Amino acid sequence: MNQQKFQAVRGMNDILPNDTPAWAFLEETLRRWLNQYGYREVRSPVLEPTGLFIRSIGEVTDIVEKEMYTFVDGLNGESLTLRPEATASCVRLAVQHNLLYAGPQRLWYLGPMFRHERPQKGRYRQFHQCGAEALGFAGPDIDAELIVMTARLWEMLGLRDVTLEINSIGSLECRQQHRQKLIAYFEGHLDVLDEDAKRRLHSNPLRILDSKNPAMAAIIEGAPRLMDILDDASALHFEKLQILLRAAGLSYRINPRLVRGLDYYNATVFEWVTPLLGAQSTICGGGRYDGLVEQLGGKATPACGFAMGLERLLALLHELRTNPQPVIGPEVYVVHQGVGAQEAAFLIADAVRSAGHAAVLHCGGGNFKAQLKRADGCQAAYAFIVGEDEVRQHTVSIKPLRGQGPQQTLSLQQAIQLLK
Ligand code: ATP
Ligand code: MG
Hints:
The protein is of the alpha+beta class. The protein contains 15 helices and 16 strands. Helix 1 runs antiparallel to helix 5 and helix 5 runs parallel beside helix 9 (about 230-245).
């Protein structure tokens, strides 16, 4: 036979049975939390027209320049892209279905995103984000709501060592002004700029501030700050946001270098960072994007949102050992041996499940000893034992596998009662 073994695509992870409980715990916590704040879930396709991302994220950004999985659909020639993020998808969805006619919307999503990056700890090519998008709210109260709610999530999850950084990148006009200053400044330091920075100097100089190249850290530090030329409206918005954050008891650091890697942001931007995950230090990022809805064909609508990386959150939970998810087995593992026992066991497992409990039926033979070893191995609470005596007497023997208690032989009904 011609055998071939396949591997998952590099940077795209399988999530195995021992890992899914932690994922399920996180996802359930997220649902409960988003529900508390009145956000409603949306699910959009993982494939979108390529233009949607180029138009929203921006042509001269890391994501669009080098991280998107873009391909031409060979069947109709359409250019498609696996979503690298979902804010654009959410806005596309809201505009397409006229959601905003009914008033402002609080939406959330959770799902896989795709970016062609160099895989390393905390950085994958398929990863998962949970994000919230508040569409149709202009005031700093919604920025504060989004930021404070993430702080409450960290509390719910028992996370420590996460800190909040905020900044305001102002209006489009003030960014334009800042842009000219940046170009002039960096032109005076051409010798220090790397290739990426030189290429972006005239197309997107703001992005240079985002660079992680240590050789450029010093000139970036000295670059003209947007904060110093902030327009009045953005400055007032930023001030009010801070009053609300302080009222909620949050501490934060103003980071004038925080610009975020996507073009659609304006005014408030923020990130939650941790020192515990090495180079991949950002677990959640967001901000305001007041121009995006209009840019994508909707009516001008202010908006604000964030996205968090689930792999990084799980890594942090693991690091802090606060993950409260022990492996939980089924309540019952049904073992059987002897004439008529297999069929009886099959029906007993079925009855246990009909009564609302979880039961695993032993399949594949073996003696009682081997079967009970399996029962123990899968962390079941009880073994239900069906031998020839039990078949004859229409009973089942119950053996508690965790903790105390004697083995007893009962009617099936009594046995199920015992589970309650
Ligand atoms: P980074 O600076 O680490 O590349 P980013 O600015 O590209 O992050 P965003 O686009 O703001 O990230 O995405 C929000 C969150 O999604 C990040 O804070 C991070 O937790 C997570 N994230 C982003 N890219 C990846 C990835 N390739 N693998 C795993 N998680 C990711
Ligand atoms: Mg990135």
